[in-house]
Hints:
Largest sheet of chain A: 6 strands, mixed
Number of strands of chain A: 6
Enzyme class (chain A): hydrolase
Shape of chain B: globular
EC number (chain B): 2.3.2.23, 2.3.2.25
Mean pLDDT of chain B: 91
InterPro entries (chain B): Ub_conjugating_enzyme, UBC, UBQ-conjugating_enzyme/RWD
Oligomer: heterodimer
Structural class of chain A: alpha+beta
Strand content of chain A: 5-15%
Number of helices of chain A: 11
CATH class of the largest domain in chain A: Mainly Alpha
GO molecular function (chain A): cysteine-type deubiquitinase activity; ubiquitin binding
Number of strands of chain B: 4
Low-confidence stretches of chain A: 1-13
Catalytic activity (chain A): Thiol-dependent hydrolysis of ester, thioester, amide, peptide and isopeptide bonds formed by the C-terminal Gly of ubiquitin (a 76-residue protein attached to proteins as an intracellular targeting signal)
Number of helices of chain B: 4
Order of helices and strands of chain A: HEHEHHHHHHHHHEEEE
Order of helices and strands of chain B: HEHEEEHH
Low-confidence stretches of chain B: none
CATH architecture of the largest domain in chain A: Up-down Bundle
Number of domains of chain B: 1
Strand order of the largest sheet of chain B: 1-2-3-4
Radius of gyration of chain A: 20 Å
Strand order of the largest sheet of chain A: 1-2-6-5-3-4
Helix content of chain A: 40-55%
Amino acid sequence: MGDESKNSSEEPSQVNQDELILAQQRQIEKEISESIPLVGEMEPISSLNSEYANDEVYLEKIKDLSSKYKHIRRTRPDGNCFFRAYSYAGLERLLDKKDEFNAFYKQAEESKDALVQLGFQQFTVEDFYDIYMEVLKRVGDLTDVDDAKKTLHFLFNEQGYSDYMVVYLRLLTSGQLQKDQDFYSCFIEGDRTVADFCHQEVEPMYKESDHIHIIAACAALNMGVRVVYMDRGNNKSVTEHDFPEGCTPLVHLLYRPGHYDILYP
Amino acid sequence: MAGLSPSERRLQKELMSLMKEPPPGVEVDFDLAEQNLLHWIINMEGAAGTLYEGERFQLQFKFSNKYPFDSPEVTFVGNNIPVHPHIYSNGHICLSILTDDWSPALSVQSVCLSIVSMLSSCKEKQRPPDNAFYVKTCNKNPKKTKWWYHDDSV
């Protein structure tokens, strides 16, 4: 269980290099965090142009993207963006479909016991579950859809709620991976077990999401997503991938290397 | 539990659970934790059949008001620091769940279990190879050390 250790600064000096690196890292994180809301406002797709002023490859792809989508909603790039974007966008869409929202709510209510049965500690899961259900209830109880969406946006920008939503979705994703570990083990590189992978790459905050996280999250919430990839690749159009394959996606996300934002058709 | 912050509420729950169902060989100083929920001392016994059988250790847990999003600061304190390849003589512990792999789903109990297991799997009592240098240069807070995790076997 333990880990062999090695302190990284090899030469004694007045200044501890480790601390400088960590301090700088914290400063960068703080700057990012202060400049970008956890979940931003809806903006036109053309707002992407300013990020790539002289970049023909990207400008061409933004043109293609704008033929398929009208709006984008940015999320904070803090490693939690997939989980935050996916659950926000999913709930936002469900608010338009009362029946589906109710089914989703019922499924969420039953999710805590399933996690505890998988071996998660009751009191650690409970905190996150309680807040998760509180958010679902607060937005679900509002009869006016616009009010509900405003409340959702407000709560997702309150760290005390937003991060709890992220953690709970991370736990549900981890639970899904461990429940179907025979299936997921073939996606994991190296000799890590599915449980190791969950403890190291899924459950901790700020760890970025890969395909395997997305597949498991979609299975856990039973909610399909289309991810639209936009990168420096040679083709002129953006590429799309649905999870699970062949689904009618409820949520649309834009992926640029290292980051997810929400898209609106 | 009105008037408690979310981190205190969570710690209160953990404290109760640790009192009610402590893992074998682990005992929390309840009165101390009651006085200040952000600072706990945990007494730990070396497990039978391991190199640490019969020894007693003390672990100190310090929590920030961002717990459980922030990991606790965990060190061995007192006059018996276990001699172990991942434990420095100043009580600092090199264990990935205390920094990089911390998750809000972990708890004081799961940290204690990991440390018990780390001690139990030890085959030879010795300090980390860079002990002297580390102890001289490190920050008081082990969370400020940039750890490199190599080996999961001990």
